[in-house]
Write a structure and sequence with these properties.
The protein is built from 7 helices and 10 strands. The protein is of the alpha+beta class and 194 residues long. The longest helix is centred in the first third of the chain and has 19 residues.
Length: 194
C-alpha cells in the first residue's frame, strides 16, 4: 500500500491487486462482499492516519477507482464542516466506486514500446495511444481496443516490457504529450519494424 498526501484534508492510497490478495480480498469482493470491504477501508484509514499523521474524524468522502491491471487507488477527503458535531471517535465514510476499463502501462525506454507493439499487432491489436510524460512513455489501451481479445494475455504481454501505471488517463491527457493519438500499435509497428 502506497500513500500520498494531496492537501491538508486529502490523501491518496494505492493498492495493487497483490495488496488486496494479501488482505484476503479479490477484485470481485469489492463489488459483492460489503462487510469485508468496509473492514478493508476501516483498516486502510487507520494505517493512513498513522503514517501521514492525519487525525481522521467526522465525515470522510472516499472515491475508489479500480484500474484494470494495476489495482485501485482511493482518494480520501476529510469534510471540514464545522457545523456538524461528531463524537471524538466517530468516523463516517461515504464511498463511491468506479471501475476503469482501460489499460495503462508505463515504459522506461521507447524500444520496449516498439517490441510490445510488434507482439500486440501480431495478435490482432491495432489501437491505443502512446504518451510521453515525466521522462516515461505510456501506452493506453481502451476497452474497445481489447474487445473480443483475451485481456489477461494482453496484460501479460504488456507486463513483460513495462509496469502497470497508477497515473490516470485524465492526468496523461492534461499533462502528457501524445506521440501517437490513435492506432498507436499499428503505427508503431509500421514505422519501427521490430
Amino acid at each position: 500500500m502506497r500513500l500520498e498526501r494531496l492537501s491538508i484534508n486529502q490523501f491518496k492510497i494505492f493498492l495493487t491487486f497483490d495488496d488486496l490478495i494479501e488482505r484476503g480480498l479479490t477484485k470481485d469482493d469489492l463489488w459483492h462482499d460489503l462487510p469485508r470491504v468496509h473492514a478493508l477501508f476501516h483498516d486502510m484509514m487507520y494505517e493512513a492516519s498513522d503514517e501521514l499523521g492525519i487525525e481522521l474524524e467526522g465525515l470522510l468522502l472516499v472515491q475508489v477507482h479500480l484500474l484494470q491491471a494495476q489495482g485501485m487507488f482511493v482518494i480520501v477527503t476529510q469534510n471540514d464542516n464545522d457545523d456538524i458535531e461528531y463524537d471524538d471517535d466517530y468516523v463516517e465514510m461515504k464511498v463511491t466506486l468506479d471501475e476503469s476499463r482501460e489499460l495503462i502501462f508505463y515504459f522506461e525506454d521507447f524500444e520496449h514500446i516498439i517490441q510490445v507493439c510488434a507482439r500486440l499487432n501480431h495478435i490482432g491489436l491495432s489501437g491505443g495511444t502512446v504518451y510521453h510524460f515525466d521522462n516515461k512513455y505510456y501506452v493506453r489501451l481502451y476497452d474497445n481496443d481489447v474487445k473480443e481479445k483475451n485481456r489477461e494475455h494482453i496484460i501479460a504481454i504488456l507486463s513483460e516490457f513495462s509496469s502497470a501505471s497508477i497515473i490516470t488517463s485524465y492526468r496523461l491527457d492534461e499533462y502528457g504529450k501524445k506521440i501517437f493519438e490513435r492506432d498507436a500499435i499499428d503505427q508503431v509497428s509500421k514505422l519501427f519494424k521490430a
